[in-house]
Design brief:
Oligomer: single chain
Number of helices: 5
Distance between the termini: 30 Å
Shape: elongated
Strand content: under 5%
Order of helices and strands: HHHHH
Structural class: mainly alpha
Largest sheet: none
Length: about 140
């Protein structure tokens, strides 16, 4: 009987999708400051979105900063997950590590928006260390 490898969409790959959506959630939060207002009355300005965001303050500005950081964290996470898969990392451990990374990043965003910088930085560090762990899961 011929054994054929069938690729499957793992939980870690689903985590990549969630990670790619996190910046969009942050963007929605950041832009909610202008919801229901006309552009002339301080509502979101799609003609100059970056200029409009630069004028935001408080938790809306922090949500925008969390968006930027979420985009910055994304390539390393995607690369680590792909490399771990390619190196044959144990699937269960890889899936759990990817889920942990996503949860740490979600809590990171929550702490960023809530203006809790010490906890936020601890969560960022934890997620970064988990990401390094993911990268080396398949190392032999």
């Amino acid at each position: 009987m011929n054994s054929m490898h069938v690729a499957r969409f793992t939980a870690a790959y689903w985590c990549v999708l969630v990670a790619a959506l996190l910046p969009m959630v942050c963007s929605y939060l950041a832009k909610s400051a202008g919801k229901g207002k006309s552009r002339g009355n301080g509502g979101f300005d799609n003609h100059d979105p970056r200029g409009w965001m630069a004028q935001q303050t408080g938790w809306h500005a922090r949500a925008n900063a969390a968006q930027t950081n979420s985009f910055e964290a994304l390539p390393f996470f995607i690369g680590a997950v792909i490399i771990a898969h390619q190196l044959g990392a144990g699937q269960t451990l890889l899936d759990l590590a990817a889920l942990l990374w996503v949860f740490l990043r979600i809590f990171y965003i929550m702490m960023y928006v809530a203006d809790m910088p010490t906890v936020r930085s601890a969560l960022w560090t934890g997620a970064f260390l988990v990401n390094i762990g993911i990268l080396f899961l398949g190392y032999r």
